[in-house]
Amino acid sequence: MKGIVTGYSSGIGKAICEKLESCGYEIIKLQSRFEDTQNLEKEVKEILKTTEIDFLINCAGKGVFEPHEEINPKKIEELIAINLTAPILLANLVLRSLKKTKGNIINIASIEATRHSKFSALYTATKSGLRDFSLSLFEEVRKSGVKVTSINPDMTMTPFFDELKFKPSSKEENHLLSSEVADVVYEVLTSKIAITDITLRSQYFGIEKK
Known about the structure:
Layout: E1 2-5, H1 11-22, E2 26-28, H2 37-48, E3 55-58, H3 73-101, E4 104-108, H4 121-141, E5 147-153, E6 166-168, H5 178-190, E7 197-200, E8 207-209
Parallel strand pairs: 1-2, 1-3, 3-4, 4-5, 5-7
Antiparallel strand pairs: 6-8
């Protein structure tokens, strides 16, 4: 089994790669920046000239949690490009290959795709857009055998929070681990049924301000 995982350098993406590689999967790691759609498209098309893939896992993501009027317009464009535009573009590019292999698209969205939180309007817009894209795309491609899944993790202890003003509570029951999300990804990939939408929650809620 061979496929693309984005966001592979840290956090959930890194954990997914480690899990899948330990199970014998081959991971293709893209080098292009997501903001540069021309190079991204060129790189993927070059890969597909010689390779059929079995899965695409869109895991790269970035967060901004500020009053909306205080967010720099360039930051708005960057967040939309990374969290929403790039996953949609990648799905567009690989679908013909996935239809041949009856493969999987897994989009790592967020718990914020399922609720409405203060100072999260921009981030929520990108992640809820990604979740709805996943659900709609499944209806479009299900007859071809392609499975499309949105995974919506609660706060997960990753470097995602390094540049933010808060992080998940360090109490074990107040956060998820990247490895736990990776285990669910593996279950989705190996399932005979189509799992279209799954939300992962910590038992309790808690954050720590920096």
